[in-house]
Amino acid sequence: MLRSLSGRFLILTAIFVMLAEVLIFVPSVARFREQFLLDRLQRAQIASLGLLTGGEVSADLQEELLRNAEVFNVVLRRDEARQLVLSSPVPAPVSQSFDLRDPSAVTLISDAFRRLARAEPEVIRVIGEPVRMGGLLIEITLDTADLRMAMVDYGVRILWLSLVISVITAGLLFVVVQCFVVRPIRRVVRAMQSYAADPEDARLVIAPSSDITELREAEESLHSLQRQLTAALKQKEHLAQLGGAVAKISHDLRNILTSAQLFTDRLEMSEDPRVRRMAPKLVNSLTRAVHLCESSLAYGKAEEPSPKLARHNLADLVAEAIEGERLATGEHTIGYENRVPADVVLPADSEQLYRVLTNLLRNARQAIIRTGKSGGITVSAETDAQTCIIRVEDTGPGLPPKAREHLFEPFRGGASSGGTGLGLSIAAELVRGHGGTLVLERSDESGTCFRIALPNGNFAAAP
What we know:
The chain is α+β, with helices and mostly antiparallel strands.
């Protein structure tokens, strides 16, 4: 109970109400004391009215008048003359005098609490103004025993009333908090627990329904987070399944490609000069495919192995990648242009960089083919002492908004309806492995440009 939100709210409410009542209690007690003494002054004035006419009053009557007024004697000042109107024996000397004609709030409060703190009865003198112009001044002496008892009784009644008010207020607030705060929070907690048990079930994603602004915002944020997490988990599962399938395919494909390598040796012995010219390219393509299959089997994960860095001529690597894409172009009219300077030598893994260029060139070729028009693809490079910048530009239609939003995410960043988005994801991962970046520099109606930034310094090859 005490550790729950509603329980602590109940206790804090009761404490705050009691504090508020204490702040009210302090001036209330001071006001009660002042009114008690003013009442005694008024009684004493009424008791002395019969003597002001000049008539004789017996001692028994004076005693009765003083007893009813609960004072020992009464002094009136009229026309600058003080007159002892009623008197009786005083049991003890007067210890203090209090002037109630114009007291300050601080004086009244301090006098009241000093009286509460002093349990021993005393005889005090009280000075005030007579009511209804009954003179200039009235003085009385009285015992403080009845005054203190009345103040204690009043204070106890105030405290009990404060306690009842605090309990009722806290109880009402407890019910309100339970209905409007605790229950909605518990519903959110139950939704989170249900979702945690099976985060891939989209039916368990919370549906925002609270009419409280803060809770509504929390539910909407949780809804968005759960949807993103569910999509990410499904994507991870898809990638895991794909990884298992790729491993199996790579195993069989490696065996097929190894057999195909054995037949390429015979092609080099052909008398046809065109066949002999194409045979080395076929050998290189088969070798790369075998290496790729072996890497997939050896690594066994969705990540790529660390690059094996060596210095390579970038223009030759780009020319080889362009030549492979030119063969795949078929009857479509696409112009390829290699603007990489012939003297650019880059520390990189040639196989991985070739895959990056091939993925970008293939995407550009497919984008132009989808338009049904002719187009062009250009690869350029510029270098300085620190960085080599490679740009792959095309004159295609540009990437759609959805593809740009999830550009390098597998299965979400495909540029076409049948694309998977794996090509750009793989290319970005390979470039990151080299310590570089792959970004979309431009994409509009005039075409698309991807920018590769690779370190150009002399650094040790990764293990």
